[in-house]
Q: What sequence folds into this?
């Protein structure tokens, strides 16, 4: 199976995206096809042994649209093609500024603006000439030769000449509308083309009849309806395109973070080279105030680096030799020498951009309702327009009245707002989250965030700072403390566990060196063992000692001298109790405020840990978590089942962990939130990744989900209300009972306003407060 994202061109409404989806989804070998109108993209999953992208592109083109295949990976200088990085938009990863899609959108905006200006230039005088016929009793000054009742042929010819350039500017509606109708999938363009085309052809026929028989009774002209409706649709599409372009502001801001070049340091000095020529292992010089071009490790220098655009962290972070550094961040006043670790599409910045773009292209479950409606909407509207026109014709109404009803229905019922309701909100919501270090992987994750009732936090490294400190050491009688610490540190320095790191740091503080350890083995959830200086050393939890056949009672004399609420590491040498080392991991300073905020939002908080119950209760008490919500002494393989038990009780559960040891629990929850600061496992195992280790961002992520779903529902409500109320009005239902009849001109204005209003409502999410210190 292959999962690819491709660009779809030529779409203008929800019926377009529904048509592409139908055309691709029915192909043999295609498992799923999700088309996003707003991002002009399709995510397609297919069996490459049964179908390829060329066949999928042919199906899209047969449906009347275009499909652009993704670029192939481009090798760096001196690399074979197979070694190239994954394909990516170079502008997103190499400081090139705007993406290809954005450049196309800018060109499209310019074309639409020109069309609006030209159409308006001709529509205004045409409207002026015809207003006296539209508004009874209105008299406007104009030469007699332009007055229709005095010179019907010449006046009609002038109106025709004014309308013709507007139709030429709006030819895209006719071309696309015909193509999609020919393939059995009519769209918004089909409705606009039919309505305005019918009005124009009717008027053209009337002009020819007048010219052939100047003495005949003149009929009604609808040149102004066709021209003004097309002008209003052009204005609406231009405003809609401008608003849609604004929804991608967050992505564009990220794409412009990486500079286009880097200053590579070699034996001959410094050389400024394009970013795509920088390789892992190179060393680059970053001067004060410069953007950092690559992911790497500080080799030399001290500086404060501003990471706010990636993590949302407002304060610059101090960087010293050995510290990791991320491309796209801003160097402060110091000068740094950085060893390159990742470049191009593999950098954290590029991966963030890809993750956010994938989330924006993915379809949320709420969008499925709009898709189902849009799939049948245009054919149903066509049927309603024909039936309404036929009913009024049978009722004895003149042809011009029937044509006005037919045109108004087709124009006002364009399903643009339906197609934009969901993707605009998701696009703006995910972009807003990205600028605050909250990376949402899909629209589905945003929807689930709204429903979360319980949040389960892992203790170590999540609720705590992840940097434990040794608080006490109780050594058995007859054991040399320095020799013991040397052996413990020699075992633990081979382990990556935070508690092991605490023992190593304590040994360094005491000036105790480490020696070679043999036969090292890490035991997940228990501890570690090795042979040091010819002696077997075990260090870890009491459960490890029991598994090795040692009686826990042997350690009771050592427990008298250690704090009861701290984490205990028991040590044994050659099968005899040697020491108890207690460790305490300090709480994150924002932890209490973060959990209080979740409680105010109605969320129940649990703590999950493999630590002993006394330690877990102490930490929970400091954080204000009730004892009945503490899930202690949980083995790594049991964490997922603990989360599953909450879900079976009918709760909607979010799991918050560091994305490494907690991966099974993250996957088992309704929603996984990883505080991974961009680590590989965090990107893979969670639905939401928090780029900064701030617990308050959990509440911000849930708040973002609730606000986005609320915005989607508002958009869908107004889109459905607009169409359900507009169609009867255009069909003359109110007129039949003495009310007004909606003219095609006002129908065009209402259609344009509905699409723009949906996009503008979604843009409100760009001002959503995600400040972690929100009261």
A:
């Amino acid at each position: 199976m292959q999962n690819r994202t491709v660009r779809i061109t030529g779409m203008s409404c929800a019926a377009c995206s529904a048509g592409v989806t139908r055309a691709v989804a029915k192909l043999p070998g295609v498992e799923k096809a999700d088309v996003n109108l707003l991002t002009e993209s399709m995510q397609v999953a297919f069996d490459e042994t049964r179908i390829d992208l060329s066949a999928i592109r042919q199906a899209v083109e047969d449906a009347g649209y275009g499909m652009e295949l993704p670029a192939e990976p481009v090798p760096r200088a001196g690399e074979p093609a197979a070694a190239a990085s994954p394909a990516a938009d170079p502008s997103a990863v190499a400081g090139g500024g705007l993406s290809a899609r954005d450049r196309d959108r800018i060109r499209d905006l310019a074309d639409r603006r020109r069309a609006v200006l030209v159409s308006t230039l001709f529509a205004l005088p045409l409207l002026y000439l015809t207003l006296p016929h539209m508004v009874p009793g209105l008299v406007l000054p104009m030469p007699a030769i332009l007055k229709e009742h005095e010179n019907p042929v010449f006046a009609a010819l002038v109106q025709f000449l004014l309308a013709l350039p507007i139709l030429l500017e709006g030819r895209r509606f006719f071309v696309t509308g015909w193509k999609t109708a020919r393939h059995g999938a009519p769209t918004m363009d089909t409705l606009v083309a039919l309505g305005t085309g019918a009005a124009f052809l009717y008027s053209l026929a009337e002009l020819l009849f007048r010219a052939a028989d100047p003495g005949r009774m003149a009929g009604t002209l609808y040149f102004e309806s066709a021209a003004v409706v097309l002008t209003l649709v052009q204005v609406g599409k231009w405003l809609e395109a401008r608003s849609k372009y604004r929804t991608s502001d967050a992505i564009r801001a990220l794409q412009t973070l990486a500079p286009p070049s880097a200053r590579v340091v070699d034996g001959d000095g410094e050389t400024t080279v394009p970013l795509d020529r920088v390789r892992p292992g190179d060393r680059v010089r970053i001067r004060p105030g410069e953007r950092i071009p690559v992911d790497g490790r500080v080799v030399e220098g001290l500086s404060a680096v501003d990471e706010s655009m990636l993590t949302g962290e407002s304060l610059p972070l101090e960087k010293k030799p050995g510290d990791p550094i991320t491309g796209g961040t801003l160097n402060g006043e110091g000068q740094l020498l950085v060893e390159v670790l990742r470049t191009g599409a593999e950098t954290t910045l590029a991966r963030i951009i890809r993750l956010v773009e994938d989330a924006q292209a993915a379809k949320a479950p709420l969008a499925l309702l709009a898709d189902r409606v849009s799939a049948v909407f245009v054919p149903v509207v066509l049927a309603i327009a024909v039936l309404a026109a036929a009913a009024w014709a049978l009722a004895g109404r003149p042809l011009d009245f029937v044509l006005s009803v037919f045109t108004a229905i087709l124009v006002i019922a364009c399903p643009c707002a339906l197609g934009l309701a969901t993707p605009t909100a998701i696009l703006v919501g995910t972009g807003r989250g990205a600028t605050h270090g909250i990376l949402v992987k899909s629209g589905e994750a945003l929807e689930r965030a709204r429903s979360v009732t319980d949040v389960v936090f892992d203790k170590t490294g999540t609720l705590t700072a992840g940097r434990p400190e040794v608080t006490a050491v109780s050594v058995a009688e007859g054991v040399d403390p320095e020799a013991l610490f040397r052996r413990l540190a020699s075992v633990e320095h081979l382990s990556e566990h935070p508690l092991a790191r605490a023992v190593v740091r304590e040994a360094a503080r005491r000036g105790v060196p480490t020696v070679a350890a043999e036969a090292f083995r890490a035991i997940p959830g228990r501890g570690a063992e090795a042979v040091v200086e010819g002696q077997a050393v075990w260090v870890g939890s009491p459960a490890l000692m029991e598994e090795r056949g040692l009686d826990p009672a042997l350690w009771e004399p050592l427990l008298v001298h250690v704090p009861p609420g701290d984490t205990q590491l028991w040590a044994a040498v050659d099968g005899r109790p040697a020491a108890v080392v207690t460790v305490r991991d300090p709480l994150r300073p924002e932890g209490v405020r973060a959990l209080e905020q979740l409680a105010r939002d109605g969320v129940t908080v649990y703590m999950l840990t493999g630590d002993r119950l006394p330690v877990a209760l102490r930490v929970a008490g400091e954080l204000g978590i009730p004892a009945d919500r503490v899930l202690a002494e949980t083995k790594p393989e049991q964490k997922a089942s603990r989360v599953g038990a909450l879900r079976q009780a009918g709760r909607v559960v979010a799991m918050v962990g560091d994305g490494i040891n907690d991966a099974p629990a993250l996957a088992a929850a309704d929603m996984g939130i990883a505080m991974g600061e961009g680590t590989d496992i965090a990107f893979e195992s969670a639905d939401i990744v928090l780029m900064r280790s701030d617990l308050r961002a959990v509440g911000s992520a849930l708040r973002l989900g609730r606000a986005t779903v609320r915005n989607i529902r508002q958009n869908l409500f107004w889109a459905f209300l607009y169409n359900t109320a507009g169609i009867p009005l255009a069909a003359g239902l109110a007129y039949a009972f003495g009310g007004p009849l909606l003219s095609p001109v006002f129908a065009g204005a209402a259609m344009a306003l509905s699409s723009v209003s949906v996009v503008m409502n979604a843009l409100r999410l760009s001002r959503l407060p995600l400040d972690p210190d929100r009261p």
Q: What stands out?
A: The radius of gyration is 34 Å. Confidence is low (pLDDT under 50) at residues 72-96. DSSP finds 28 helices and 26 strands in the chain.
